[in-house]
Amino acid sequence: MSERRKRVSLVGAPTDIGAGMRGASMGPEALRVAGIHAALAARVAEVEDRGNLGGPGNPWQKPVSGYRHLPEVVSWNLLAFEALHDVLAAGRLPVLLGGDHCLGIGSIRAAMRHCRETGKHLRVLWLDAHADFNTPAITPSGNLHGMPLACLCGMGPTELVHLAGEPGRLPIEALRLIGVRSVDEGERRLVHESRLEVFDMRFIDEWGMRHTMEQALSGIDENTHLHVSFDVDFLDPDLAPGVGTTVPGGPTYREAQLCMEMIADTGLLGSLDIVELNPALDERNRSALVVVDLVESLFGKSTLMRMG
Q: Is 233 a catalytic residue?
């Protein structure tokens, strides 16, 4: 479906419940201030803003049995799951405005149910400086924003592995991790054992973003639902400092633009997360403005002088 025919719904999830630092709860409003509605309205048939989900506050407690704020994380992900599935069922493209990356559990679960209902194949592009494949046994923090992929792949608490009673796990072969450059030692072993397909920054340095995206997008077709989970710390912190877990050496502006443009070229984008934007750590909303610019490219704005 061309961008001009797509109907987009913005859903805010103002929470930092899974993070180790406060502030990502302000991300949805920062994106709105940066003009995400107007930017998308120039690219698609229709944009609606469904406002913010209303979930539990952040109690800021220590981990219990290896997980911080597990009941609250479950509540927020159930809200995200239900809201995004409703958007997909209405034939619209959901854009989740986060919020921290634990929300990826609910959003991707919604995409999984939608694919099961429509007979589509799911491909998930996880744009992130981190693998987010931790478990309580291998992480000291217990912060659930470092565990969403492990939970989706069946390694986590039952409440999140089977969120909303959903059957099945996210198949490893549906996942592509891009931009990774910070992985805990135990997490690295688990990633290798699970045979995740990871295009880390060394791969991007050696092969370039074009080849990286060709590999990450290989095998998709018109029956593919493409879900992009965009953690703002995917970007180099010189470009986007407003995140709680900055990691130097990320993609440059042009590399990030090419990544987004190549996704847009497929015409298969079906759902999107924007997470981990932390305005408390930003510089005059600079990171949000960069993100909105990149999201425009994800929806078809090209920097190249091409016809069409």
A: yes
Instruction: Kindly list the structural domains of the chain, giving each domain's residue range(s) and its CATH number in brackets, ordered by start.
Output: 3-298 (3.40.800.10)
Residue 60 and residue 16 in contact, taking contact as beta carbons nearer than 8 Å: no
145 belongs to the catalytic site: yes
Active site residue 69: no
231 is catalytic: yes
Catalytic residue among 132, 236, 261, 273: 132
Indicate the pTM of the whole model: 0.96
**DSSP 8-state code for residue 195:** T
One digit per residue, pLDDT tens: the chain, 308 residues? 556 689 999 999 999 999 999 999 999 999 999 999 999 999 999 999 999 999 999 999 999 999 999 999 999 999 999 999 999 999 999 999 999 999 999 999 999 999 999 999 999 999 999 999 999 888 878 999 999 999 999 999 999 999 999 888 999 999 999 999 999 889 999 999 999 999 999 999 999 999 999 999 999 999 999 999 999 999 999 999 999 999 999 999 999 999 999 999 999 999 999 999 999 999 999 999 999 999 999 999 976 655 54
Alpha-carbon separation of residue 124 from 213, 229, 249, 304 (angstroms): 13, 7, 23, 26
- Is 143:18 a contact under the CB 8 Å cutoff? yes
Q: Which of 128, 255, 273, 296 is catalytic?
A: 128
Q: Which listed residue (3, 72, 233, 296) is catalytic?
A: 233
